[in-house]
Write a structure and sequence with these properties.
The structure holds two protein chains of two kinds. By secondary structure, chain A is mainly alpha-helical. Chain A has one domain. Helices cover about 75% and strands about 0% of the residues of chain A. In chain A, α1 (about 1-20) packs antiparallel against α7, α5 packs antiparallel against α7 (about 135-165) and α6 runs antiparallel to α7. The longest helix of chain A is centred in the last third of the chain and has 31 residues, at about 135-165. By secondary structure, chain B is mostly helical. Chain B has one domain (about 5-445). Chain B has 20 helices and no strands. The longest helix of chain B is centred in the middle third of the chain and has 34 residues, at about 280-315. Chain B is globular and about 85 Å long. Chain B starts with a helix and ends with a helix. The chains are: A mainly alpha, B mainly alpha. At the A-B interface, α1, α2, α3, α4 and α5 of A face α1, α2, α3, α4 and α7 of B.
Chain lengths: ~200, ~450
């Protein structure tokens, strides 16, 4: 039951994160287009600047939970990794209460007001006559923060599962940094070689 | 307790929480909100009217309005695409053939490959693991000392965060409110200097002690000179051209860093297509990884901006300034002290944490000691090379250990990194004694 809940949230964060990742491609293509029309056709667009930070904001607000679900937020785990899994889980559970929820709940609260103020008047950018709407990206602040809080809840449940079972529950499969893939392959190869030698 | 003392308590809690190992971005945010609530507290106010809530949202929103930061996802995408372009094998082989007359040629080719590839990708881990699989076994076969071979791979792989276009420099420029463009120009020559010193060290070593880096056996080469040139044109030239055009466009003011980065990402895409290595799954991987790393950096910025404003409001910045100025340091001792602290922080921490949290503590002190923030940034960038090489948290060493044969001990890798660590320190001394190494290029291009 608990596991299903954890994986459900993981899956939600991952799906949303993956979907919004594509804003980076829009950002790339849009900017390349702007460079092209400005330098070669001498006819700059009026929307490129607004587009760039809106796409950037969309990625960063909405992929925060996805990053958390992959353990991607930078941390110094020099001491942490020396602990037993159960001790790790207890420490982490306490830290989540102290150092995670105060900030993120505050952001949900104030972000909602901020986003709503903007969405109510369908606020658009004043940077150019194109009038690019910026209320959606402002609304993403509370939604992104809410997703992060939900993922944080899943991480706390992971700690509880770990305290109960004595080992960390596994994570969903997803892409990993190249070095992690390569190191995992190298380790698997060595294990195979060792197995072969033993037989 | 007076407010400045409370600010120091806040800093103390932050450092302890980081050392215990909680994700830094959220720790910063929570401490900013908690202490900010106290700092901005007014007795007759409703709970949610406290100013700290506005501050937090404002900071969350202004991060996306920072033009320099928008280029981060684009440079990351370029890096992840180049990383997957299957370019490394050919690059290494062609450089190895081109450099084969040089003493220690295999190590020199490894360093050159690492430097170029790391510059294009800007990511440390991938290049160290890839070269650990590719170059390390070849150096072993050629009879190299394992320590030297390991040191070369680790040190070469780190150059990517120093030589522009590097993400670390963007983050520093954003924290110090200086121009990314100028910082790029300033870091270029020191970056080449360091790479050159690594190469010189390897060449000299292989002349003085041929036993540790023996020359390759003089067998008849299977490749004609023309073939080697053709191979260089297929691997070395396109990658170098991509980097140079991105950098050139930025430095000569043809494009903003964001525009140049977008063109670079597009170029990385085209390059990977031309090498016929870009599959749909690999492309998706690059996009997802870019999103994750960008989100990591940005949330760190949200946290640090909130933390820093509350810290300054409580007077924490003032008390540190007062204390340091009270020590009556001269600029040299201040510089030595600050760089030494950054060096020590590099042992347990990664560059993101150091630049986003600890470097800003030193930045307000620079004007007093008349230190150019650009020069300081270059010194920090050089210094942080050591963060990847020094035990116990030398990421480079662990990446290499992860792919190398089991016979290679972690202690051997660390000992192999030591000479390169000394070279980094030497390069810092050189840049300090002759600041023109860093400042000449920006001064020539942009004037004083």
């Amino acid at each position: 039951m608990m596991n299903r809940f954890i994986y459900g949230i993981d899956q939600l964060s991952k799906t949303v994160g993956h979907a919004f990742s594509w804003c980076i491609v829009i950002l790339t293509l849009g900017t390349v287009y702007e460079v092209f029309v400005r330098y070669l056709l001498n006819d700059p667009t009026s929307w490129a600047f607004d587009m760039s930070y809106i796409m950037y904001g969309a990625v960063f607000y909405m992929a925060g939970a996805y990053t958390l679900s992959r353990g991607g937020h930078v941390r110094a785990d020099m001491f942490f990794r020396l602990l037993q899994p159960r001790t790790q889980a207890i420490v982490e559970l306490v830290l989540y209460v102290l150092f995670f929820f105060p900030g993120i709940l505050a952001l949900i609260h104030s972000g909602s007001l901020f986003g709503w103020d903007s969405a109510r008047i369908f606020e658009s950018s004043v940077n150019s006559p194109a009038g690019v709407p910026i209320w959606p990206v402002k609304m993403m602040i509370p939604f992104g923060a809410g997703l992060i809080a939900l993922q944080g809840l899943a991480e706390m449940l992971r700690c509880i599962v770990c305290i109960r079972d004595g080992e960390w529950p596994s994570r969903l499969h997803d892409v990993e940094e190249l070095e992690k893939q390569i190191i995992a392959e190298a380790a698997a190869k060595r294990a195979r070689e060792d197995g072969g030698a033993a037989v | 307790m007076s407010n400045p003392v409370i600010a120091l308590v806040m800093l103390g809690i932050l450092v302890s929480a980081i050392m215990i190992g909680f994700p830094v971005a959220f720790t910063l945010m929570a401490l900013g909100v908690g202490f900010g609530y106290y700092a901005y507290f007014q007795p007759n106010q409703a709970f949610f009217d406290n100013r700290v809530f506005d501050l937090l949202t404002q900071n969350t929103f202004t991060v996306i309005n920072n033009d320099a930061l928008v280029s981060i996802p684009l440079f990351l995408l370029m890096g992840y695409l180049v990383e997957r372009a299957n370019i490394l094998d050919n690059l290494f082989l062609s450089l190895q053939l081109a450099l084969k007359r040089l003493p220690g040629s295999l190590a020199v080719a490894t360093l050159a490959t690492c430097a170029l590839f790391a510059t294009a990708t800007g990511i440390v881990g991938a290049v160290v693991t890839l070269m650990g699989l590719l170059a390390y076994p070849q150096m072993m076969k050629a009879g190299y000392d394992p320590k030297i071979a390991a040191g070369v791979v680790c040190a070469g792989g780190c150059l990517g965060i120093l030589i522009p276009p590097s993400i670390m420099l963007i983050v520093y420029a954003a924290q110090a409110s200086i121009s990314v463009v100028k910082l790029y120009a300033a870091a270029l020559l020191p970056g080449f200097l360091l790479a050159g010193m690594y190469i010189a060290y390897v060449v000299i070593l292989s002349i003085v002690k041929p036993g540790v880096a023996p020359p390759l056996p003089k067998e008849k080469s299977n490749f004609s000179r023309r073939q080697v040139v053709a191979m260089l044109f297929k691997s070395f030239v396109p990658l170098a051209a991509l980097i140079l055009s991105v950098l050139g466009a930025i430095m000569f003011g043809l494009a903003t860093p964001t525009e140049a980065a977008a063109v670079g990402a597009f170029g990385g895409f085209v390059l990977a297509m031309l090498y016929r290595s870009l599959t749909w799954p690999r492309f998706k991987e690059s996009v997802y990884l870019t999103a994750r790393t960008s989100a990591m950096v940005c949330w760190l910025f949200v946290g640090s901006a909130t933390f820093a404003s509350v810290f300054a409001y409580l007077g924490g910045e003032g008390i540190i300034k007062e204390y340091v100025l009270g020590m009556d340091l001269n600029p040299i001792t201040f510089l030595l002290m600050s760089q030494f602290i950054i060096f020590l922080l590099g042992w347990p921490l990664e560059w993101t944490e150091i630049i986003i949290i600890f470097v800003p503590i030193f930045l307000p002190l620079l004007p007093h000691f008349q230190i150019d923030p650009i020069l300081f940034g270059v010194l920090v960038a050089l210094n942080l090379q050591t963060a990847f090489l020094s035990p116990p948290m030398a990421m480079s060493a662990y990446y290499l250990k992860g792919v190398a044969p089991r016979s290679l001990q972690l202690t051997q890798i660390f000992r192999g990194c030591m000479p390169f660590l000394y070279i980094v320190l030497l390069s810092m001394v050189l840049v300090y004694v002759w600041p023109q190494i860093a400042l000449w290029l920006p001064n020539v291009i942009y004037g004083k």
